[in-house]
Amino acid sequence: MRRIAVKAEAHEGAGGSRPRGVLELGGDDQSRLNGSPRACEHMRRLPAVGRSPSALALLVVLSAQLMVVLDFSIVNVALPSIQRELAFSATGLEWVVTAYAITFGGLLILGGRAGDLFGRRRLFLAGLLAFAAASLLGGFASSAGMLVAARTAQGVGAAVIAPTALALLTTTFAEGPARNRALGLYGATGSVGFVAGLVLGGALVTGVGWRAVFWVNVPIAIAAALLGWRSLPLDRHTLHTGRLDLVGAILVTFAMAALVYLPSAVSTDGRGSLSALAVVLVAVVLLAALVVWELHQPVPLVRFGIFRLRTVTAANAVTLFFGAWNGGEVLVLALYLQRVLGYSPLLAGIASVPQGLAGLVAGLWGARLADRFGVKPVLLATTALAVVGHLLLSRVGTQGEYLLVATALLAIGFGNGGTAFAATVAGSAGVGDAEQGLVGGLLNSSRQIGSGLGVAVLTAVATSVTAIHDGPLTTALTAGYRDALVTAALFAAAAVVVTAVFVDRDDANHAHTRLRARGSNSARQLAPILTDRRATIDLQRGE
């Protein structure tokens, strides 16, 4: 038997590049590796450090994504019942949503980066258990304060689950077709989960009661944690340096929380109110302090050099616009169906099914289209389709032409599903595994901030147009909703422009394509799979 030692050294550059392999082979051994068919067979059979991607691990991550998205929409359906039973005031009821949004949006970047530092698997599983406990507490809430506390804890758990789930996908599946398929399923799950939450929420509130919308999360979270403990790869390599940048963690958490809360403060108290201005001032000061602090840290919590990757920055901008038009459109559509057409919450959820189904198809087919045409063309096409869908939906009237509504929702669903998938692929392309948690936190934060912005802007447009419109109430409401949907189309149009100008097609292309362009030398093909500090290949003569 001849033993050939192959050493791999991690080279961490400014761009957070992946580990590169450095092969130390003698001349005779090099010829054996390059020329021997049996040696090549040994190389193909060399196991990667850790477990290979499994269907069960993918199912666990998708289930967690489904639960987080499901909870976001399912609770909104139950708000009227919650207000009646727990005696919430009109302003107090808003905190059932706002408390969750602040902790979720505020902790996303910290949750993702903590996964990079201390292990994504352990943070992901801890987040699932925390979310299950908070959901159980929310279901047994006997007072308004107890429910708001439970929602706050739910936001903490979700802020850990969302970025680490995305990072687990992008680090488990290699950049290229495999990752595209996984992210396509990830996006499709989100599309289905949101609409399923509207339908399931209506059914649970009607048949069981509002407490069931919290209890439904418990078995999903516990099952995902147990299966994830068995199927997810161990956290063998992290960036743990012995300490967490606590100052950076505090600054980024409160800065993001202020940005998430800002639209709510503006919509509640007005744009010129002291509270809204105070939130703006706090957000600006915290963001400035964060930048100054992190630029002087040897191991920053948020490495701002990542924004030098133009496609990553553009993908976050597109995701922010996507959150704005999607969050605003969902609210406006629900208000139109219930206040103008008189639909019940359950029927309104069922009427939204075409959008979810189209998003599912877009997620499933997006990977194939990206493999064939590239990520940038897919992102351009889907954001443009979202523009068309919202303009079409803005043609609705007071008589409820559902065929028009369904057609528009199909276009919006395809646009939303494709945009979510393609922006995620572009936002994680070219970033090393060591920073995929940070990428997940940034993308999720962009969407969360955009959603709050979209809800505030579209609500303000609808309210102002309705207030100055002469005529019956339903006609005035319809006019306001139509202008709000045109505003959503403008958000989508901004995403088209950002994609066309700033997304680099080469950056968004697959890493495996670039690898093939460098040549097919066996040593170069072997190096990327060596993730451990040392690997040993045993080549046996005569086998």
Summarize the structure.
The chain has 21 helices and 3 strands. It is mainly alpha-helical and 543 residues long. Among the domains are: 2-45 and 512-539, no CATH class; 53-241, MFS general substrate transporter like domains (Growth Hormone, Chain: A), CATH 1.20.1250; 245-300.
Written overview of the protein:
This protein has 543 residues and is mostly helical. The protein is 75% helix and 3% strand. Mean pLDDT is 79; it is low at 1-51 and 510-543.
Describe the structure using short key phrases.
543 residues; mainly alpha; Growth Hormone, Chain: A; three-stranded antiparallel beta sheet; 21 helices; 3 strands; globular; disordered N terminus
Note the total helix count.
21
Distance between the termini: 10 Å
Helical coverage, percent range? over 70%
Order of helices and strands: EEHHHHHHHHHHHHHHHHHHHHHE
What's the gyration radius in Å?
25 Å
The first-level CATH class of the domain at 53-241 is given as Mainly Alpha
Q: So, CATH architecture of the domain at 53-241?
A: Up-down Bundle
Give the name of the CATH superfamily of the domain at 53-241.
Answer: MFS general substrate transporter like domains
Q: Kindly identify the CATH topology of the domain at 53-241.
A: Growth Hormone, Chain: A
